[in-house]
Each structure stands twice: as C-alpha cells, then as structure tokens.
Design brief:
There is one protein chain. By secondary structure, the chain is an alpha/beta fold. About 40% of the residues lie in helices and about 15% in strands. It has six helices and seven strands, in the order βαβαβαβαβαβαβ. The chain has helices at about 10-25, 40-45, 60-70, 100-125, 150-170, 200-210; strands at about 5, 25-30, 50-55, 80, 130-135, 175-180, 220. A seven-stranded parallel beta sheet has the order 3-2-1-4-5-6-7, with helices on both faces. Helix 6 (about 200-210) links the parallel strand 6 and strand 7. About 45% of the residues are buried.
C-alpha cells in the first residue's frame, strides 16, 4: 500500500488526511510541532501503531528536517503532502503589518515546503505514485484577488505557486508529479466556521484528485474540483 508523509498533521486537513488514508490501509508518517499536545493524532497512532508514526517536526527548524530525512532515508514516499501553513493575521492589514508575522509566513508557507521537497525528493522518486502535493490557496491567485488584505498569506502562497512550478519542471525527468492544490473554502481553524466544505469533504476530493493525477497535472494550479485556477 502507498506511503504518505504529511506536515501539519495535528489538526484540520492534515489530521483528516491521516484518518482517510488509514481507512485505505496506507502507511503514514505524520509530522507536527508538538506531538505531546496532538491528542487526537496521538490516539490515532496508538490505535494504528503499525501504520501511523508521529514525528516531531517544526518546519522552521532545519535540524529537525535533517533528523527526519535520516530516519526516513530508505523509505519510499508515494505522496509528500506539504500541508503546514500559517495565515499570518499579524501581517494582513495595510499599514499594520508586523515584521515577525511576515517572517513566520515566509518560513512556514514558502521556505518549508521548498526544503521538504529538496530533503525528500529521493524518497518520492523511489515510490510508485511519485507525487509531491503542495497545499496552496486561491488567495495566492493574483488574478482572483478582488478584496485585498491578507498580505503575507497571499504573497507567500503566490510565491509557493512559483516555486512549485519550477520544481515541476526540474523534476519532470524523474517522473515526479508536483501539484499545487487549493482545498476549497474549508471549515477549519484557518478557514473559519462559514466554509463551503467540511474537512472530510475537502480531503476526500483532494485524495481523489491526487489519485487520478498524471504528469499533465504537474505544475498546474488546481481547484478542488480539478479545474485550473488563474495565476
């Protein structure tokens, strides 16, 4: 069965991804900053100890990335799912953008997925599916921006899109599919209570989209229904 490596697995989309992949008997490496505080994820790991392993990983700490790379050195990874992200509310409003909030957004939303791709590309290349999925957002679309605001979040997601397109080109010769995915407007801590989709619906659609993907989807900015989003 396939193997999944996912960041930000303690809640929301990351946690639900673990739940749905466990139903399909996947092997899962779930990463989060504070495993001891991730009660629901820890309970899942206890229940599925042969299938789900929880790893301590703060994507801002390079030494933790290096340790995880060594631990998973010979492990084929069918899907590397870069899910961890921050909204950076402190860098959302014109005239009131905090430098620290900007820095955190750049490190978590942009640099961390780039480093994850670089550190685990060989693992992905060893697998059958060979998929890297970077969770972006329609808010990273410059064309779609009709409301302004959310400066750091929009900017870092747009930059992530650019990085992902470059990776899709650079990894084409290794037959690795590098996807840019918008999960829809989801009812999570980040998406808020008024989202159009439950987290269960979003993850189900994301997994279907990934499962049906091929090289023609690599480097494309895809909505939850598989349609392309304008840059």
């Amino acid at each position: 069965m396939p193997t999944l490596l996912v960041t930000g697995a303690n809640r929301g989309i990351g946690l639900e991804l673990c739940k749905q992949c466990l139903i399909e008997d996947w092997t899962i490496h779930a990463c989060c900053r504070a495993p001891k505080k991730a009660k629901e994820l820890s309970a899942l790991a206890k229940e599925h100890k042969d299938k789900l392993t929880v790893h301590k990983l703060d994507v801002q700490h390079i030494e933790q990335l290096e340790a995880l790379q060594k631990e998973l050195k010979n492990t084929p990874i069918d899907i590397l799912f870069n899910n961890a992200g921050v909204h950076a509310k402190g860098a959302s409003t014109f005239g009131d953008c905090d430098d620290d909030a900007w820095q955190e957004a750049v490190e978590v939303n942009l640099l961390a997925p780039m480093k994850m791709m670089e550190y685990f590309v060989d693992n992905v290349a060893k697998s059958e599916m060979k998929v890297i999925a970077n969770l972006s957002s329609k808010m990273g679309s410059i064309t779609d921006n009709s409301s302004g605001g959310s400066y750091a979040y929009r900017a870092t997601k747009a930059a992530l899109n650019a990085v992902t397109v470059s990776a899709a080109q650079d990894l084409k010769h290794r037959d690795i599919i590098v996807m840019i995915l918008h999960p829809g407007w989801v009812r999570t801590d980040m998406g808020g209570p008024h989202g159009e989709l439950s987290v269960e619906q979003s993850v189900s659609m994301l997994l279907k989209l990934i499962g049906n993907s091929d090289m023609s989807h690599s480097g494309k900015f895809l909505d939850i229904d598989g349609t392309e989003i304008p840059w």
